[in-house]
């Protein structure tokens, strides 16, 4: 299959983002006539417990699956893809407990101390890429549901976080636009760089998680990505989001993001991947920042370790703290770590058992609301995912897309 400018499909992350070539994500693929078909996804069954007066507990499942078909077309490469999630049923349309998380709504009320579920239609998109010379190519991506060129690789598609169940506390500062109902992205690229611009729907998905929201192209973004070598990719983006929150009509957001992703193979058939991500929102004259450092080490075929350190600035409005002025800012910090042991391994999939624990740290002003300045949470879980599939027989790189 044609790879424009020789760029392997395994470099693709969520939407049109790039990840390091050295740490592709696991998928299964096969040829059907002229089509390369790829199946990818993760499924977790977890018990989630978040302590304190604003905590909660839940038994549920986080999950998603993606099917992509690619073929040569008119001197380039055409791709059709869909990604689906049963989260609205398996963690409910209210999502799962997660202390200090914020963003989106449930039954016209702001979601707080919970992470919203993925929509059933995480992605439905087509993309076409073509080289026009030995050094320059162009791409076009269109999606009724998809991801604009704005943030870093969405957290569940980063090699540094693929086994991390929880969304970053800075999700709505960094990569929350990975499900947008209406996206049109055009880009130009070389062997090691890509410049893209998008028109997209700036409104966050609504509380009805099974269908399509109204498709709009009312916001815009741009992103520059660079592939430094097989181990490093960097990106920076800016976006204008029109009316992202349904509870604040007429209040738009300016978002800036930057990321550094590093990955390498390690002895024993494993890989080590790390990401540094920063995101900032400017809304109603107030700018808030978030940042994280995360790593995942697939130590060998049986053992995986992961960790994330993050901070975020959230307002009293974000955290629904009515006794403070809405624009009052609080800096929160969280550190989490997890471990997974593979217990069953088939020809195409692997089943692991894992645990993940989080400690959140808040300023003294939040202690009356959360009962402590150190907030604890954790999950125990079972995880099913594909094995890395060999692509040598196909003579091509393994694809990975969102």
What's the overall geometry?
Answer: globular
**Overall mean confidence score, pLDDT:** 93
CATH superfamily: Porin
Catalogue the unreliable spans: 390-402
Q: Care to count the β-strands?
A: 19
CATH topology: Porin
Strand arrangement, largest sheet? 2-3-4-7-8-9-10-11-12-13-14-15-16-17-18-19
Number of helices: 3
- How much helical structure, as a percent, in the residues? under 10%
Structural class: mainly beta
What pattern of helices and strands is seen along the backbone? EEEEHEEEEHEEEEEEEEEEHE
For the record, the CATH class is Mainly Beta
The largest sheet, given as strand count, sense and whether it forms a barrel, is: 16 strands, antiparallel, barrel
What percentage of the residues does DSSP assign to strands (E)?
A: over 45%
Any idea what the CATH architecture is? Beta Barrel
How many domain modules? Answer: 1
- Measure the end-to-end span: 20 Å
Radius of gyration: 20 Å
Detailed description of the structure:
The protein is an all-beta fold. It has one domain (4-394): Porin, CATH 2.40.160. Helices cover 3% and strands 55% of the residues. The chain has three helices and 19 strands. It has helices at residues 87-90, 171-174, 367-370; strands at residues 28-32, 35-50, 57-73, 76-84, 96-106, 109-115, 121-131, 137-145, 183-189, 193-200, 219-229, 232-241, 253-266, 270-283, 286-300, 303-315, 329-345, 349-361, 374-386. The strands form two sheets. Strands 2-3-4-7-8-9-10-11-12-13-14-15-16-17-18-19 form a 16-stranded antiparallel barrel. A hairpin with a 2-residue loop joins β14 (270-283) and β15. Mean pLDDT is 93; it is low at 390-402.
